[in-house]
Design a protein that fits this description.
With 195 residues, the chain is mainly beta. The two termini are 29 Å apart. Helix content is 9%, strand content 69%. The protein has one helix and 13 strands; from the N terminus they run αβββββββββββββ. The chain has an eight-stranded antiparallel beta barrel.
Length: 195
């Protein structure tokens, strides 16, 4: 709960910084496509993940720092899904639910087209590996990086971005000698609406 409060304080702080200029509030949602890293079985075998589709939804604030530069913190609930091919037969599905707080700086480059990037703070709410009892992840709070491009048409914004987790983070099974890397490596498609 303490980490959720940290997220809200950071989001509010970014809002105050952005409020000095024109401030826009909005909602967003979209799809994630990628994986959650590798599984290590008894320190011998590494199993890579097949990419899976997840989703996200949330809110954002955007404040113009200058005519062409903006600050855009987002607070969103994200679900990432991956599938691992178990060498002993069958597939294992790995699902992560988290709160994301990307703090993006963007630049308008040509009319409605803009590029952006920045850190993405993540708080893992739940992780679940099918048929395996996982303990808590080592670090519930991690850092990643997002960058991408988008187009703003009136009150509607569409963007595509890449996210990579930077902080090494693992969840270990309670009784089976399995470790799962929970760092995201994904492409994110999003639609946002200014309210």
């Amino acid at each position: 709960m303490k980490n959720v409060l940290v997220f809200l304080v950071l989001f509010s702080s970014c809002a105050l910084v952005a409020q000095e200029k024109k401030l826009t509030f909005g909602v967003k949602a979209g799809l994630n496509y990628g994986d959650n890293g590798k599984i290590e079985v008894t320190d011998v075998t590494n199993i890579g993940a097949d990419d899976g589709v997840g989703y996200h939804f949330g809110v954002f604030l955007r404040g113009n720092l200058t005519e062409n530069i903006y600050l855009k913190p987002e607070l969103q609930y994200t679900v990432n899904n991956s599938t691992y091919n178990d060498p002993s037969g069958g597939d294992l599905d790995y699902n992560i639910k988290k709160l994301d707080l990307p703090i993006l700086v963007g630049v308008s480059v040509l009319g409605p087209i803009h590029v952006f990037g920045g850190p993405a703070l993540q708080y893992i709410v739940e992780n679940d590996l099918e048929d395996v009892r996982l303990g808590d992840v080592k670090n519930e709070f991690t850092v990643g990086l997002q960058f991408g491009a988008g187009i703003q048409l009136g009150n509607l914004n569409a963007d595509i971005r890449y996210e990579r987790g930077l902080s090494k983070n693992r969840a270990e099974s309670i009784d089976e000698g399995i470790r799962v890397d929970s760092r995201p490596n994904q492409i994110i498609l999003g639609l946002a609406l200014d309210l």
